[in-house]
Amino acid sequence: MLATVAEAPYPLPMLSEIDTRPFPTVPQAFNLAGHVLANATTLDKPALTILHPERDETLSYAQLLRLTQSTATALLAQDLHPGDRILLRLGNTLAFPILYLGAIWAGLVPIPTSSALTAPEITRLAAVVQPRLVAVEPGIALPDHPAPRITPDLPLWSTLPPSPLHLSDPEDEAYIVFTSGTSGSPMAVSHAQRAILARQTMHQHWEGLGATDRLLHAGALNWTYTLGTGLLDPWTVGATALIPAAGTLPTGLPALLDRSGATIFAAAPGVYRQLLRADLPLLPHLRHGLSAGESLPDTLRQQWRARTGTDLHEALGMSEVSTYLSGAPIRPAPKGTAGYPQPGRHIAILNDHGHPIPCGEPGELAVSTADPGLMRHYLGHPPPQGPWFRTGDAAVMAPDGAITHLGRKDDLLNAGGFRVSPAEVGAAFHDLPLTACAATQVEPTPGTTIIALFYEAPCEIDALTLRQSAEKTLARWKQPRHYQRLDALPRTGTRKLIRKALAARYRRPE
Fold it and tell me: Among 281, 229, 230, which Cα is nearest to 251's?
């Protein structure tokens, strides 16, 4: 049954456009790190615990603030000035968030990068951002770049005097992240100081996050999902952030969830899938889980609920604008959808000419260029122009405003003249004993295209079993005509699927 006007948080749209602004006013002088740590001055409460198998590392809010301020002093002593960029080549250690916040506190610009990148890969990225300093830890590949290097020494830096907070224009560059590069080379995304303010709406309209929570995030610290949801958001509201130590395997997460008393767990769908295959203990403290990074299949959500008694809430976002639509404990996403636009957001589903289309019709998901969470620009490119930033995601909006994500626009498959969502195809197989799967088009003979499903699994799955799963939920023209097991699906350094690389793995049946 459709929601009534009284039940909806905004007027029900005729077209696929929803404007839930106004957003909170952006101050004239602002600092992202100062905002995150605004309430940390006297608190002895744990701010961050890195979970080790035997002995954990914990920082109180007072220690976090003090280390941030003294790290800012140490960085400025390297002959750096506000606006200078620092490339972070760090692992899942305390140094990572401390340098990130300390740089921003001083008006410097941190650039988080994956520790898994090779020397040639990080050399190419360094050439784009031109850092003035590279922060390094042993065992992580370094760029061939003339910028000086510094190894974090937190015990020494903690003895330095605190640096004053650098206030600047909220439009000034605060940090840079790289896109995952799933459709080509990674792009350098410049974010403004104001970006943190767009996260305020997520605290209740996705995360269900409050000051008493203990949020455990399973991702690497350089990932924007971990950095925002796992660290900055808990600290902004005064909660405790929990991060597994480097090298923690998914099989070790159940014990950490139990021992840490986590009330919220955040991970990508693949991690939830692995946990469901593990010996999960009772988790009496856990209230719900958060999912992002890739589409969350309904079957996985249902399996998690049946196993743990808690819900999973999905959010959709991207490096350029973070998350902007989601389900939440106070308003769960309807089945098959990613949820609703978060309050303060102005989004639309557009046709090829850039105009909003009627509800129920598929098109391209777009975010207003006035959104405070939207990037300043890609480095080397002008700021987004016009009223809409087109995300490249295909989606459809229901009359009550719920959004169904159909995958990347250029990933949509063509089966017999019908457009097919690869996410919908993949969801048909998530109750099988596989780790991950992805659908794409392949060409078995010149001029003939079919839908193929590639999957990761411990062993080959019988083709009849796969076909029967497809027949249960997919119309005939959506069903794959080819199934192929891979040792690993092609992914980026941040574990995002590279769908375009699948076709090259296709093996014609003998």
Answer: 281
Are 102 and 68 within 8 A, CB to CB? yes
Which residue would you say has higher pLDDT here, 323 or 182? 323
Other C-beta atoms lying within 10 Å of the C-beta of residue 19: 15
pLDDT interval class at 8 (50, 70, 90): very low
Where does residue 224 fall: left (phi above 0), alpha (psi -120 to 50 degrees), or beta otherwise?
alpha
The more confident residue out of 86 and 510 is 86
- Residue pair 389/395 in contact by the 8 Å Cβ criterion: no
Q: For residue 145, which of 154, 156, 136 has the smallest C-alpha distance?
A: 136
Return the amino acid letter for 385. Answer: Q
Distance, in Å, from the CA atom of 494 to the CA atom of 223, rounded to the nearest integer, reads 7
The alpha-helical segments, DSSP class H, found in 309-430 are 422-427
CA distances from 360 to 165, 349, 376, 400 (A): 49, 10, 32, 11
Alpha-helical segments (H) within 358-459: 422-427
pLDDT range class, residue 14, cuts 50, 70, 90: low
Q: Quick check: 89 and 138 in contact, CB under 8 A?
A: no
In order, the DSSP letters of 183-203 are TSS--EEEEEGGGGGGGTTHH
Instruction: Tell me if 50 sits within 8 A of 92, measured CB to CB.
Output: yes
Residue 124 three-state SS? helix
Sheet containing 346-350: which strands, arranged edge to edge? 17-19, 346-350, 363-368, 388-397, 403-408
**What contacts 309, CB < 8 A, 6 or more positions away?**
none
Helices (H) and strands (E) in the chain, counts: 13, 26
In this predicted structure, which of 64-78, 143-157, 369-383, 442-456 has the lowest mean pLDDT?
A: 442-456
Q: How many CB atoms lie within 10 A of CB 505?
A: 14
Tallying the residues shown for the chain, one arrives at 510
Question: Phi-psi category of 18—alpha, beta or left, where left has phi over 0 and alpha has psi -120 to 50?
Answer: beta
**35 DSSP β-pair partners:** none
Return the ∠ at Cα 31 (arms to 135 and 494), rounded to 5°: 45
Q: How far apart are CA 108 and CA 111, in angstroms?
A: 10
* Residue-range domains of the chain with CATH: 17-401 (3.40.50.12780), 412-505 (3.30.300.30)
Quickly tell me which residue has 């080790």 as its tokens.
52
Quickly tell me which residue has 């350029």 as its tokens: 320
